[in-house]
Amino acid sequence: MIPAAFDYKVAESAEQAISLLGEYGDESKLLAGGHSLIPMMKFRLAAPTVLIDVARISDLSYIREADGHLAIGAMTKHFELETSAAVAEHAPMLGHVAALVGDPSVRHRGTLGGTIAHSDPASDLPAAVLALGGTIVAQGPNGSREIAANEFFTGYFESVLAPDEILTEVRIPTGTGGWNYQKFNRRAQDWAIVGVGVADGGKGISLVNMGSTPVRATAAEEALASGASAADAAALAAQDTEPPQDNNADAAYRSHLATVLTRRALEAAGVA
Amino acid sequence: MDVSMNVNGQSQSHDVEPRTLLVHHIRENVGLTGTNIGCDTSSCGACTVHLDGQSVKSCTVLAVQASDSDITTIEGLAATAQADGSATGDQNWHPMQEAFQQCHALQCGYCTPGMVMAATSFLKENPNPTEDEVREGLEGNLCRCTGYHNIVKAVMSAAGSS
User: Fold this and answer.
1) Which of A34, A255, B11, B66 would suit a FRET pair with A196, their CA atoms being 20 to 30 Å apart?
2) How does pLDDT run across B31-41, given as a tens digit for each residue?
3) Which residues of B touch A51 (CB under 8 A)?
4) Residue B139 sits at the chain A interface (C-beta within 8 Å)
């Protein structure tokens, strides 16, 4: 399968990417690792007429320890997250989850910024960033802004990013609170049928593939904060979600999985 | 547009459409057909090559994305081993190729170039893996013949010899 024809532009900097986005508008797409976009283009689910390659912007590939958080450049690859000593020390859940994405060859190409901007509710890393209380930095023609991960995802493959903005950085609060990630699938490499991320001893609980965006299990988080047991809080994990139905599972099965996986994740994270 | 890259140590410049996939570029423009096309959806790994030393699925990389990079395909693997002195056996092959032959790690052979390229990239990152780690490391490469046992044996054998 070969994608529909397009023009290919290389951005050497975030500023140049923004300027190219301004020039080509809605018909253009930013290309990072391409491991979500290129398959969609091969299936003709996407047919941008201009691709702006941002993967060569070396300024956007870094992992830096900052005050109270880890700053990760958008073009940092999954492989770099899973092998980074700084990530292992300060945000171990992120490195662990990065290593569960796809397979090693996919992780050599896929980027953190790419997967967050792609906003697939079935992807692992957006949900991990959500549970961890991350912040997303976006740059546009008028400068940068910070967006809480809670407010970033707006719908199926949709986010608050404006058409002329580029995601430049993801910030993860550093912490050593109990964490766990449960990914339920049937075959190696598959997306999660349902996934659950627990961060910071249960203060952040997020769900994969339980709606049109990665979502927080708010009812379960609140129950835990009010002193409920892990088992009782987990029973509320699917509350207010609208899980999809597909060949793998119907909505009721997904809701059940969410409660079971949340209980397992909380227990594995050391939450009583 | 003009795309230049180094393939198996040789500079290659071709005029390619931006939508050309790296695997098609390697097979049709560069003329190296050892890299196979299997699923064409980044699942099976038959098209695995090394891009700047790391395994990638060349059906999911555009040739233009690989512009100015170093590509190694199965045809160039033995030469990398001959250059660093690790080549082995009667054929003077890469230790992974020798191990695949010694362990009978293939039947039809279709997945083999991708398996060998993925396995050599994996061992660079994890030189002394456990058997479980080998299986995890090769999760992106599918073989429909062998049941994987001899492939895992070959990778463990190559790890021991390098």
Assistant:
1) A34
2) 999 999 999 99
3) 18
4) yes
